[in-house]
Amino acid sequence: MQTPILGSAYVARSVNAADNRMVNLFPEVLQEGKTAAYLQRVPGLVLRATLGVGPIRGMNAFGDYLYVASGSSLYRVDQAYNSTLIGTLANDGPVSMANNGTQLFIACNGPSYIYNTSTLAFQQITDPDFPGALTVSYLDGYFVFIEPNSQRVWVTSLNDGTMIDPLDFASAEGDPDGLVSSIVDHSEVWLFGTNSVEVWYNSGAADFPLQRIQGAFNEIGCAATFSVAKLDNGLFWLGADARGKGIVYRANGYTGQRISTHAVEWQIQGYANIDDAVAYTYQQDGHSFYVLNFPSANATWVYDVATGAWHERAGFDNGIFTRQRGTCQASFAGDILVGDYQNGRVYAYDINYHQDYDRPQRWLRSWRALPTNANNFKRTAQHSLQIDIESGVGLDGLVQGSDPQIMLRWSDDGGHTWSNEHWAEMGKLGRYNTRVFFRRLGMTMKLRDRVYELSGTDPVEINIMGADLILGQTNA
Questions:
Q1: pTM for the full model?
Q2: How many angstroms separate the CA atoms of 64 and 66, rounded?
Q3: What pLDDT is stored for residue 374 in this prediction?
Q4: Calpha distance 278→300 (Å, rounded)
């Protein structure tokens, strides 16, 4: 019998109802092949540069350089990942960065800075009319930014982020909520309040160029400033409104379309604080990922546009899962880069590397032994479980992964308590005919229901096509 190991992350409020966890794996739907889909391992992290003491607060790539905010410092990085210190930044926490092709604007939740790539001048914005900036974007020659703790959106002078006219602002007053985030998408300015979103455009007016688009207003706000990100020709964000918060949306026209599941929302809404959530996006092999980190909760959730499926990403420290190390993203020098939330390291995502730099990357999949609605509440003898996994992927030499193993354990009470681990070999290098079996799995007890959990830490490729369960049944 094929047991439903494929799928996505879906752990319900009651694990007796659903306990399908997916950590550091994601599904890919096949147009042709052996199965309809398979599970593959997420990319590992390869160190590219260490910039100061960190954490990495933001990155922006344009021209021939990458600009990185690390701790209180701003660095310029060339194509060979050599770095130059540019200057000092204020505050801590994430920064918002945008460029106009010559100037780089760094918004530090109040104090903000301009780096001119032509003159190499770095300066704090000291115009007396500058109110501070929380987020910044670029539109038609202007830097567009929102003032912290206000309803006001501003523009700088044309092609000059250091100059601000005291009249170059307007208030987003479709709802009396304050602005918490902003972004420019398709040459339109999206202004996110705590309870609403409204969209503005460049009208070309001489006094103030931005004007609200009539009808482009909806009563879905934003729960976290840095959860807003572009992906798949649209916008994604962690939502909030007058009735609550914790749903993830993507833009559908000028409205928000819910993409989170009840299971993901239950997890998110159970976190004590979600206001500090930080998101980034990237693409890999046709998959577009929205990566949503929750620093206070020490957790990371990822949405894959290609499949509409969610999974967890995680670091693995001292035997427990933590939030993933990456906290911001840039595409540079042929790499997809992420910055570390704890230190000054910048990593490249590498689908062929199976560690998080110098730390193991643990993957895990849990699933119900029987398909949905197949449990007839009779005890079953579960004789063996064969994992249809790509074998013979061991590493060459006397290193971890030369004889890769995977671990299995199970729960007979719906996912509340678990058995000891049982190990099976995946096959040394080149042993492609290795069959991955777990035998003598015993009799189901109590709820006549079993949840399996498969995991591993060896730094080898993981591709799971399915699993076959051989069982018998009693009349009990």
A1: 0.96
A2: 7
A3: 74
A4: 10
